[in-house]
Design brief:
CATH topology of the largest domain: TIM Barrel
Bound molecules: zinc ion
Shape: globular
CATH class of the largest domain: Alpha Beta
Largest sheet: 9 strands, mixed
CATH architecture of the largest domain: Alpha-Beta Barrel
Number of helices: 14
Number of strands: 19
Distance between the termini: 6 Å
Length: 424
Amino acid sequence: MIRHSVLPKTATAVRARVVFPVAAPPIFDGVIHIEGGKVVQVSAKPPAGVPLTDLGDVALLPGMVNAHTHLDLSDRKKRLGKPGMNMSDWVRLVVAERTTPKKKLAAVTNGEMQSIRHGVTTLADIATYDPFDMPTNECGPRSLRFHEVIGFSQARAPSAHSGLVKKLKRSKAEGAPQLDGTSMEGIAPHAPYTVSPPLLRNLVNTAAEWNVPVAFHLAESKEELDFLTTGAGGFQEILEQRSMWDPWAVPRGSVPLDYLRILTRAPKALVVHGNYLERKELSFLARHRDSMSLVYCPRTHNFFGHDPYPLEVAIQLGVRVALGTDSLASNPDLSVLNEMRIAAARHPRVPAEAILEMGTLGAAHAMGLGHLVGALSAGRYADMTAVPIPDGVPDAHNEILMAILGDTAPPCQTWLGGETVDVE
Ligand SMILES: [Zn+2]
């Protein structure tokens, strides 16, 4: 279980060798002053009359933010299928894997505990379960739950949409989960091969009406692009076998940009994966960066052996990029820090600071929570994680950050709203 070991409702302060606030330059011998679960001030000077804990030779970072996961698969001991396999064959394995509602909820709780252990304090989960059935876990990460919607054929679209609206209405009637007045629910139309453009349009309109974010898997595989162009291939076969196929649901010759255009109407849109987005599509995302973000899942990308990820181009163009772990069906753990490490190794031209932002403030902004979490600054939640600094690194913040990203050590301590959380 996860438990709080300290309950500092009163003022407290922690000092570290270096603090990376993310929204401001790093501070050596930095001190975070915390009160009522939120950051009061970040500076090099301890506040007078406030008990101070010195953490020593660590880097203090904002709690990690995971912009994409499927926690209902967190009971898995190893990944599903084989590296480099076809996406549609892998999807078949995932579909066969789905279990009972009770097991799903247990897996979600398990995934929340694993996340906290990896220093993840906020996450975006794709929920195939009913969030109302989740046991209260006040010490778990701040979870934004995206209700997954699937309904490819025109015949199924109305019931898929009304089912989603029913969930939102129930949330409202029974007290929707919120963080300082911001909804912790979202809508997840699954992907172009399970949600048709008209259904996506309706779901995005609903998201605008309810002011909730949308997460959509897009341009994940070449197979998906072929499906959009021709209406054939492995995904078509799955839909046919599951009696969901509708030859007229997607116009032939469709491309990811058609879907991006629909997503512009969402208050926030997380474009998950985008492994095969073209330059003009990345430019489109950059132009809409206030509301649209690209979610890069480095180790899942690696598992499927996709073409190199267009991270440098995306960043150059000004796309807001967030990191996600995806699920344990394609990734060995739920650590955003480890995603940062793989991203840093694979994209050495991307600055370490940009990579840190992708797994903290960038992800928080993507989810519409950037004003509350993702950075250490006055008024935001004191969600933090301490990471050991490898031996012999000089006092230069970029070298420290690069050393941490080149290391393998997990976070040594994590705080949620200023309280340390221990996972047993
Ligand atoms: Zn996913």
